[in-house]
Design a protein that fits this description.
By secondary structure, the chain is an all-alpha fold. Helices cover 56% and strands 0% of the residues. It is built from two helices and no strands. It is elongated, with a radius of gyration of 15 Å. The protein starts with 11 loop residues before the first helix and ends with a helix.
Length: 36
C-alpha cells in the first residue's frame, strides 16, 4: 500500500535538476511523440 504524499511539491528548478537527461530516453520520447 502506498502512502500519500504529504510534503511540499518540488519547484520546477528542483524538478529539472532531478530529471534524467539520458539521450536514449530523450530520443525515444521524441520518436514516440512524432509517431503519435
Amino acid at each position: 500500500m502506498t502512502e500519500p504524499y504529504c510534503g511540499v511539491a518540488p519547484s520546477p528548478i528542483d524538478w529539472l535538476s532531478r530529471w534524467n537527461w539520458d539521450p536514449v530516453l530523450i530520443a525515444t520520447l521524441a520518436v514516440l511523440a512524432s509517431l503519435h
